[in-house]
Design the sequence.
């Protein structure tokens, strides 16, 4: 066996599918040259149906199914122990390789006996070079420059930019200290000398450790840029999270303790812990500010509006100043603003991009709530309905105007969804292009598909077809003239190598890229290294949508409060009425939900968005003896895929005695 490809998967089913399609193409190229290869997928207890899909669509792949998340190192080692290739490739599932990637890597390793491992040029989903394609050993000095931002400020400096070796040419072959774990092409003979991945490293740092041990064993690590892969930076890598900061830097401490002198390791550990607190503090501040500053800005705008409207209204209505007591501005107006902001949040006004209709709905709902509360207050607390309406009008006009200005200025957090469809073309042959077009029209994105682009420069196979607006060599002009937002490539009709070349050629344009794997119900891409890979796939009104999760939580809270306030009216009509009070409190505190999934013992359960355990379930009104495992799954799927708050209300009404 010449090559063993090992992919560790954890809940990235759609990316894994695309990755395996590309791997199959690359192995086909190997076989044409007389080489053979095997593929392992080690699944770390995914819950998204990954294993089932691999076994159905890729029967030749050897699947190792773990009952728990064993971590990246241990999972790779499981497959390494079974592999028989003279070369081994550790490959991330959120990657796309070129058709000749494996062949070129084997040829290079065969002609460089000193090469223990090889990494390749990696680009992100927009075609931009990923600097982690080549790295230096993270000594205390190098790590200090990286962790405190000096390497970002001076990427080309031989001193400060050493972490990502920014001063080395990205298009030339180099010997480097560290290769990225997303693509590590290893000589099996070298691994037998160095040992496999160190399982002390759960998720990060194992690539640095292995790269270093390879050099200690007398081999070299090569950066090889003559083949390129896409690395989407998928779901398992969220670099802005506190969890990532903690896990990554703790991996660095393990590395230092293992390979540096005790004195040097201690210094490194102190430095790392300083960096953890520094980055964690920055992360917390950033997270807090990102969540609070838009509602805070709205609150300030509304309050300033009241400072202007109040004296104007007093003068017009009462021909006097200071008619209303200071309490009105100090207490009542802030309460109005708080109600409006809460209403805006639950209406989805702070989702990105912001939908004007959601904003108007939130403002009007908040105004109704304020008026209802106003009507129930004693007379001395009822200041003026007119000021409520004037404040609501100002809240709508003032905050929307500011949003519109910031939207036109291009501020990302204030982009508005003005029902503008994405302008898109599909690159592929007629049959596949029509299939992908139909898929996209069924997704929530519903883009404006301007036409198809032939993957053949001479338009062979699509001559005279009015759906085609040009061919692949004209893609630059098509993108510029038609002001495209996205280009979708059909990987069935276009090689990964050509797709990657087009992506790198269009770097700097505003166009985004997606790839549609053959026979798949997903279209996958990623806009930058800092975002998780995204995809278009068919969804209905899924409970997994953020707006539906908010609505469900709001329903749970409102229902719980109503039940608590009306407890004397209903407690005798409910079985175990004191338990029902406990259930109400559990839901109110967020530990349970009123309506959850029906439990199923069926082995082939469908993948569904997660919900807290329900007090009631979607099938509570069905007799248990009538519910087969298949029927349970069907009920859960229907509830999940087409969620409505009214359905929860109906289930509670029908099963009120069971709460």
Sequence:
């Amino acid at each position: 066996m010449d090559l063993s490809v090992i992919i560790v998967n954890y809940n990235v089913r759609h990316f894994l599918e695309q990755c395996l399609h590309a791997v199959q193409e690359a192995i086909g190229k190997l076989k044409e040259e007389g080489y053979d290869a095997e593929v392992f997928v080690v699944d770390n207890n995914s819950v998204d149906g990954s294993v089932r899909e691999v076994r159905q669509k890729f029967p030749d792949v050897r699947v190792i199914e773990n009952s728990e998340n064993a971590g990246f190192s241990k999972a790779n080692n499981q497959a390494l122990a079974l592999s028989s290739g003279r070369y081994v490739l550790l490959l991330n599932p959120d990657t796309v390789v070129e058709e000749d990637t494996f062949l070129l890597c084997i040829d290079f390793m065969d002609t460089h006996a000193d090469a223990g491992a090889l990494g390749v040029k990696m680009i992100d989903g927009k075609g931009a070079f990923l600097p982690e394609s080549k790295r230096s050993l993270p000594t205390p000095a190098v790590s200090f420059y990286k962790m405190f931002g000096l390497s970002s400020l001076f990427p080309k400096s031989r001193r400060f930019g050493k972490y990502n070796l920014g001063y080395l040419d990205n298009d030339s072959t180099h010997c480097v200290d560290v290769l990225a774990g997303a693509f590590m092409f290893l000589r099996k003979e070298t691994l037998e000398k160095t040992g496999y991945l160190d399982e002390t490293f759960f998720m990060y740092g194992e690539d640095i450790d292995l790269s270093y041990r390879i050099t200690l064993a007398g081999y070299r690590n090569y950066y090889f840029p003559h083949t390129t892969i896409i690395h989407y930076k998928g779901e398992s890598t969220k670099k802005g999270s506190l969890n990532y900061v903690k896990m990554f830097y703790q991996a660095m401490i393990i590395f230092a303790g293992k390979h540096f002198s005790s004195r040097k390791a201690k210094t490194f550990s102190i430095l790392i812990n300083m960096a953890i607190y520094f980055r964690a503090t920055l992360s917390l501040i950033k997270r807090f500010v990102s969540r609070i500053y838009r509602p805070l800005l709205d609150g300030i705008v509304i309050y300033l509006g009241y400072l202007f409207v109040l004296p104007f209204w007093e003068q017009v209505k009462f021909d006097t100043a200071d008619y209303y007591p200071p309490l009105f501005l100090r207490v009542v107006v802030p309460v109005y603003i708080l109600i409006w902001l809460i209403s805006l949040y639950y209406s989805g006004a702070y989702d990105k991009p912001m939908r004007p209709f959601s904003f108007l709905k939130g403002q009007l709902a908040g105004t109704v709530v304020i008026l209802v509360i106003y009507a129930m207050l004693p007379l001395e607390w009822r200041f003026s309905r007119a000021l409520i309406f004037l404040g609501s009008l100002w809240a709508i006009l003032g905050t929307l105007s500011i949003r519109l200005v910031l939207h036109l200025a291009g501020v990302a957090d204030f982009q508005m969804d003005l029902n503008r469809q994405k302008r898109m073309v599909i690159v592929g042959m007629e049959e596949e292009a029509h299939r992908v077009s139909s898929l996209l029209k069924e997704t929530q994105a519903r883009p404006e598909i301007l036409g198809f682009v032939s993957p053949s420069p001479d338009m062979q196979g699509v001559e005279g077809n009015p759906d085609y607006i040009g061919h692949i060599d004209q893609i630059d002009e098509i993108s510029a003239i038609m002001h495209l937002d996205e280009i979708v490539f059909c990987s069935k009709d276009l090689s990964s190598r050509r797709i990657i070349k087009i992506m790198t050629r269009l770097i700097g344009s505003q166009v985004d890229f997606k790839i549609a794997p053959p026979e798949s119900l997903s279209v996958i891409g990623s806009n930058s290294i800092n975002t998780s890979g995204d995809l278009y796939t068919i969804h209905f009104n899924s409970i997994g949508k953020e707006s539906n999760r908010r609505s469900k939580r709001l329903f749970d809270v409102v229902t719980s409060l109503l039940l608590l306030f009306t407890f004397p009216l209903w407690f005798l009509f409910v079985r175990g009425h004191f338990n029902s009070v406990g259930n109400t409190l559990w839901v109110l505190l967020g530990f349970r939900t009123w309506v959850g999934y029906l439990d199923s013992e069926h082995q082939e359960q469908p993948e569904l968005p997660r919900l807290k355990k329900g007090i009631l379930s979607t099938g509570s009104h069905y007799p248990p003896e009538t519910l087969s495992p298949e029927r349970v799954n069907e009920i859960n799927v229907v509830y999940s895929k087409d969620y409505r708050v009214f359905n929860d209300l109906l289930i509670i009404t029908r099963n009120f005695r069971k709460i």
Observations:
- The chain has a mean pLDDT of 81.
- The chain has 21 helices and 18 strands.
